[in-house]
Amino acid sequence: MRMRYILIPIILMFNCSLFGQTISTKFSKWQIPSFFRGFNVLNEFPKSNQDIVELKASGANYAQLGCFGFQDVDSPYTIKQNYIDEIDSLVKYCRSARIYYSIAVRQGPGRRDVYLESAGLAPKSTIWKRLDQQKLYASMLKHIVTRYLPDSLFVAIIPIVEPNPLFDYVAYPPELLKNKLDAEGIIMKNIYSILIDSIRVVSTDIPVVVQNVSYTSAEYFSILEPQTDPFIIYEFHSYRPQAYTKEASPNTKTFPGMFLSIEWSLNMYHDKNFFKTTIYEYVLAFQDSHHVPISMGEFGLMKQQMGGIQFLTDISEIALERGWHFAYWDWRRGDGLWNYELMGTDYWNAVKTSFTKPVTSVKQEYELIVKDFRLSSYPNPFNAKTKIRISAAKKDFVTIKLFDLLGQEISTIYKGNILPGQFEVELDTGGMNLASNVYFITMTVGHSTQKLMVHKIVLLK
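Given the sequence above, the corresponding structure tokens read:
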């Protein structure tokens, strides 16, 4: 009888939400290639419910909501009710339109909005070297997640938009910037760990989107360190070449064409192939090495340019070829910039087409794995030992690992080939000194195109 009283609250706590979702349901959508496609939505130019309804009608299913946080930047870090009201209104519109949304946090204790910093409109952020502010910011994130977590349409929290700890060094080559960050004692992986740990207090599996330094540009993925948490999405922003994407005068630049390559500091010919082989080189390598969901969280064209339709089509097609999620910048800005509806029918049709184009090879691989492999365990809950079971319809290479609630890897249970049929491996926690709690089994399938499956287990001693 005692075991029953322990078991029931654990299952209720981790297997259900207010909307009846099972664990990792939200993350599973991020594992579907290019599932989320939409726009960034900010309230700096106030939006109406009709704006979001029409965003959904365009074919988009995702809004990345920019948020000014819930607290002031400076001490005493007071609650900013007007900021809360603004994001509440955007969330309400998303619920009305039945469109998925994430919340991208642009500022909070110790951290000022990246645009205000870069434009010299605000002092530089101090959070990067102050543990007290990092903890306050982390606590704020916990309250944001708590507020929206029950909503099944809330699919991710983006803790920091474009973290730029060293604004004076954003043009550094990635490795030199990494050395400079290390010398300054700024370890972004550790800062993210503080933020993620705070979020995990209220949700064990809400997807967390990690961005890289230096305006989250693609080339800086070469120094991005992956988190151990199993529910992470990695995001980059794509405004290359800036002389084209941010040109203030319309129809003065041409794509494909010669532009400065930030990585090589040379004028180079930019076309679709150059993006795949050079600009996105490190994002592709990171994705292939770590087999994680990738989001192109901001991209687009500020004004119509020669070849602009081809440019938008090429970039969105690369995302679809690689299974990336994506969000254009910036839905219905009041100043008319980045507004494809105003650029003309051909531009707007190119955007809408990107929302409805099918994913080809990547989607087929995903469906094959979902169809051909099953992961389970018995008994579950268990005391010390449980059998991890795999049902396989074909031969492949798998890696099975054990993680705790905070996403810390505990052990590799099995790594090797399996044959078609039933495969079992025993997990014996007897020598691991683990407490009664919820843990996660993850299984990746394949070598070069791995996909992640997650299974929850409950240890009861």
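Residues 1-23, 362-370 have pLDDT under 50 and may be disordered. Try to locate this feature in the token string yourself.
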